[in-house]
UniProtKB/TrEMBL annotation:
Pfam families, alphabetized: HTH_18 (PF12833)
Gene Ontology MF terms in the entry: DNA-binding transcription factor activity; sequence-specific DNA binding
Name used for this protein in its record: Adenosine deaminase
Transmembrane segments: 6-23, 30-52, 58-77, 89-108, 148-168, 180-202
Keyword Transcription: no
Keywords from the UniProt entry: DNA-binding, Membrane, Transmembrane, Transmembrane helix
PROSITE patterns on file: HTH_ARAC_FAMILY_2
InterPro entries: HTH_AraC (IPR018060)
Keyword hit for DNA-binding: yes
Annotated ranges, domain HTH araC/xylS-type: 225-325
Top-rank taxon, per record: Bacteria
Amino acid sequence: MPTLPIPVFVALVLGFTCLRLWTEQSRLTALGVLLGICAVQSLIIALAQHYMIPGMRWVQPVSASLIPPAAWFAYIVTAVRPADRVDRLHGLVPLAALAAILVAPGFLDVLLPGAFVGYGIAILMQALHGADAQPRAILAYGNIPARIWLMIGAALVASALSDVLIVLAQIAGRGELRTWIITVFSVGNLLLIGLFSLSPYLRNEEAEKPDPPADSPEPDAELWERVTAYMAREKPYLDPDLTIARLARKLRVPAKALSTTINRATGENVSRFVNEARIRHVQAALMRGETVTEAMLSSGFNTKSNFNREFLRVAGASPSDWLQVEGRAIGKTP
């Protein structure tokens, strides 16, 4: 009875989800490219390690070298800023892998683990700064996108472990473990990276839109006055897809200046500041007689888990408990 190797199964799963993502969004996003590269790499591993196709073992390290810069690029354009010409420099990584194949194959033992660890740590360091370091991430999701990128960064670092284990297995005279190590660590982490990149919390409709030039930075007090006036007048927090970048464009200030000003004035990050305004809007809607779900959806929240967490943080109680207490306070029957 024919069997399907694990890398082939993973390649089919990731390939299918990549095509679905492409179809749903009508364009191939940076996350879609990362997903596609992971699918192709898993297939190449199967061809090289399980089916022993001639030449595939030389293709495998070059295609693997595409993954770390692709993950970094996906993080940058999804969470931080639009694509820039400087991002093309990351193409030097696969070019270096190709050159190593042709000139110094032994250098791949340093290049590939170094690329996975280096890019993984870079994503970890950026994501550790939380929501304010990701102006293109949707504010309604709070720190969830940052946590997902932390897991992707950790998966990249863990992928380098397979190369170390292969070397140790060869030193110990257990070369037969090579295929299992590659299957478990490399393919397993490819699957993790691919599935994490599918998360709806990384969705960002603005990722391909360039930012217009901002006005020169203002003193904190003046900018804070503009922020509070704009929040009260225009209620941008009612937009469930609001991002720091979008809010900064409306105010025509740099996203970093906006984030710093809000942090200094409130002691909170932008996500919490916006969500607090949403909770106040929810409370007013509840007092008008709207249901919890109606109030949540009309106030800019799009996930109940985040809404419940933020309501508890701001009000100190669940929506139903808060409404019961407030109803008694003003003489209403809850």
